[in-house]
């Protein structure tokens, strides 16, 4: 490994925590803030979509989206995310992290705005247009996953790298929280203006016309943080590890990181408080406990809590809601203080620089394929099995119980596969991937 290149990489590994680290967390984290807002805000507006476009007086569930439409609206973005993770992960290794980073943001901005402008003649056209733009929104979001993780891992030092990557991922919690708060505020403003509390159905069996604006505003608001982040992402230099190890330009890598390490100033930091506790347990403990321990613990605890929800499901369904909520919350706590975070962090560390974004994209896409199964499969299975079994004389909830059991088995499999994952705590990226040994081998003339 050339001396200049080696000095740059060593400087990154041993650098003390500086303002540029936090700047990178905020810039990359705002992408995840936007990702979470865009992906999860759709669940906040589906009920309003049903009331606006599918209200049929006398129907079993008036004002509800048909199951196939609901599954499409909620799940199509996950399909786009999977495709984006694979494509942009590969492209990030070919073109560089910085160039592709801006492309993904622009797709997110344009698709968010276009989602709010989903018009057409009749519900089918509106929902079809919405699904089209939600797919492309997910495509841009998918690219943000491998690129944000890879950039943060290549900027960080080896002592606190896991915590920094986890902090980027933890910004999802703020995005989900902001989506709920913004939806409440917009609804309250329209309710006060048009005297239609909660946009409830009026006696004529329809919502007020202005209700159609609410879901559009909520969806388009996702473009704002993405647009604000674009400028700062374009000011970030390419990561020194990509420049040195992939682009083979050690002098440029040294110049870029010299500027970042010495001239960098703090930007406005978002106060990191009030989000999902599991995320932040990971942030503070992952570089102490290690990735393996946290992931194994998370999978095991999720298995236990899933079974605790599934086996006595009828007990919870008969009105014991507090206990159900507690167990369900603990399941999510250990998902975030567990595999939800570690499966984002580890792929950004264990692969060589020339393949890091590609492999992270594949890993992230594998996880997103599970989300697609959940969005389309488990909901459909639970609803249909509940109806079939109830008609046949079984107690209600049998489909949901079986779905929880399946999830428990999947979590148990995840725990077993964890034993195949190498521990990366405290090691340099080159040490983990073996690139330090490859660089020391003499080249063939």
Q: Report on the biggest sheet.
A: none
What's the level 1 CATH class? Mainly Alpha
In DSSP terms, counting alpha (H) and pi (I) runs of 4 or more, how many helices?
20
The SSE string, one letter per element, is HHHHHHHHHHHHHHHHHHHH
Strand content: under 5%
CATH architecture: Up-down Bundle
CATH topology: Growth Hormone, Chain: A
The coarse overall form would be globular
Structural summary, described in words:
- Helix content is 75%, strand content 0%.
- The protein has 445 residues and is mainly α.
- It has helices at 3-14, 19-40, 42-53, 67-95, 97-116, 123-155, 161-194, 211-220, 223-235, 240-246, 250-263, 277-289, 291-310, 313-317, 321-336, 339-345, 356-391, 398-418, 429-433, 435-440.
- The longest helix is centred in the C-terminal third of the chain and has 36 residues, at 356-391.
- α2 (19-40) packs antiparallel against α6 (123-155), α4 (67-95) runs antiparallel to α5 (97-116) and α13 packs antiparallel against α15 (321-336).
């Amino acid at each position: 490994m050339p001396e200049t290149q080696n000095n740059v990489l060593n400087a990154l590994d041993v650098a003390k925590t500086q303002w540029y680290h936090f700047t990178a967390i905020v810039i990359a984290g705002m992408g995840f803030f936007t990702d979470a807002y865009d992906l999860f805000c759709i669940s906040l507006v589906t009920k309003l979509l049903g009331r606006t476009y599918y209200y049929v007086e006398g129907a079993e569930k008036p004002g509800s989206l048909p199951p196939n439409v609901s599954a499409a609206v909620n799940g199509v973005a996950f399909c786009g995310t999977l495709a984006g993770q694979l494509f942009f992960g590969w492209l990030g290794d070919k073109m560089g992290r910085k160039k592709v980073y801006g492309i993904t943001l622009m797709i997110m901005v344009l698709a968010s705005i276009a989602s709010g402008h989903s018009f057409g003649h009749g519900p089918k056209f509106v929902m079809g247009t919405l699904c089209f733009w939600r797919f492309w929104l997910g495509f841009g979001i998918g690219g943000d996953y491998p690129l944000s993780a890879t950039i943060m891992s290549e900027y960080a030092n080896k002592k606190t790298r896991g915590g920094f990557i986890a902090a980027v991922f933890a910004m999802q919690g703020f995005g989900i929280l902001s989506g709920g708060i913004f939806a409440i505020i917009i609804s309250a403003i329209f309710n006060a203006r048009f005297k239609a509390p909660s946009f409830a159905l009026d006696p004529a069996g329809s919502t007020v016309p202005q209700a159609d604006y609410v879901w559009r505003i909520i969806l388009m608001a996702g473009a704002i943080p993405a647009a604000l982040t674009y400028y700062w992402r374009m000011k970030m230099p390419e990561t020194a590890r990509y420049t040195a190890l992939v682009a083979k330009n050690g002098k440029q890598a040294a110049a870029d990181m010299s500027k970042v390490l010495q001239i960098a100033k703090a930007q406005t930091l978002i106060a990191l408080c009030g989000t999902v506790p599991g995320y932040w347990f990971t942030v503070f403990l992952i570089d102490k406990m290690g990735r393996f321990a946290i992931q194994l613990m998370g999978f095991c605890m999720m298995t236990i809590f899933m079974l605790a929800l599934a086996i006595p499901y009828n007990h919870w369904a008969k009105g014991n809601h507090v206990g159900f909520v507690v167990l369900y919350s603990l399941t999510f706590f250990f998902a975030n203080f567990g595999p939800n975070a570690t499966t984002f962090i580890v792929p950004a560390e264990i692969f060589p620089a020339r393949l890091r974004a590609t492999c992270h994209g594949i890993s992230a896409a594998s996880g997103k394929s599970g989300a697609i199964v959940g969005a389309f499969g488990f909901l459909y299975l639970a609803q249909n099995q509940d109806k079939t079994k109830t008609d046949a004389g079984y107690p209600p909830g049998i489909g949901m119980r079986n779905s929880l059991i399946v999830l428990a088995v999947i979590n148990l499999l995840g725990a077993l596969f964890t034993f195949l994952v190498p521990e990366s705590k405290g090691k340099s990226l080159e040490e983990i991937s073996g690139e330090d040994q490859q660089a020391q081998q003499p080249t063939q003339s």
